[in-house]
Write a structure and sequence with these properties.
The chain is mainly alpha-helical. It is 68% helix and 0% strand. The termini are far apart.
Length: 170
């Protein structure tokens, strides 16, 4: 069966924007908040980044390309907002402990991740906590894959060094 005429991709403007954004919000809110919390170390900063991402996407809905994953669009905007806030010195303190009474090693890893640069922290969190492959991280952060791998290598070296110091202290 042949398709008559050109195949057209959907855009948000083809649908009721409220329904599309409500669905996107309901489907990805919790996962996005968890990711942003790991990046920012603060629930309020995570919520700010998430709301800023939705506001930006809603304002720019006519420009969006839905051939890409709406989830990735949301995460790209949210993660970049959180990184920009950290670079501007406004947010992203070291992460609060995510669970009561972690082992000294787990607490030290969280502390060391909190000391990484915004890009390194985003890469580590996206790869190890969210299980994103390097190619997706590169797309999300608008970096070459090689840069993502290099920054991951540097971040892990810093974390490893900090853990070796902990082992020496014990």
């Amino acid at each position: 069966m042949a398709i008559a005429g050109p195949v057209r991709t959907a855009s948000i403007s083809d649908h009721d924007p409220r329904r599309v954004f409500t669905s996107l919000y309901e489907e990805h809110r919790e996962a996005a908040l968890q990711l942003l919390y790991r990046l920012t170390g603060s629930w309020s900063a995570a919520e700010d980044a998430l709301h800023q991402a939705f506001a930006t996407l809603y304002a720019r809905q006519a420009e969006l390309d839905l051939t890409k994953s709406p989830r990735n669009l949301l995460l790209t905007v949210a993660v970049n907002f959180a990184r920009r806030e950290y670079r501007d010195g406004k947010r992203m303190p070291p992460p609060e402990r995510s669970r009561p009474g972690p082992s000294p090693r787990a607490a030290r890893v969280e502390e060391l991740i909190g000391q990484l640069s915004p890009d390194e922290r985003a890469i580590v969190v996206l790869h190890y906590y969210e299980h994103f492959p390097y190619a997706d991280i590169a797309e999300l952060l608008a970096m070459p894959v090689g840069t993502v791998k290099w920054k991951m290598h540097e971040a892990l070296a810093r974390i490893r060094s900090g853990l070796e110091k902990l082992a020496d202290e014990m």
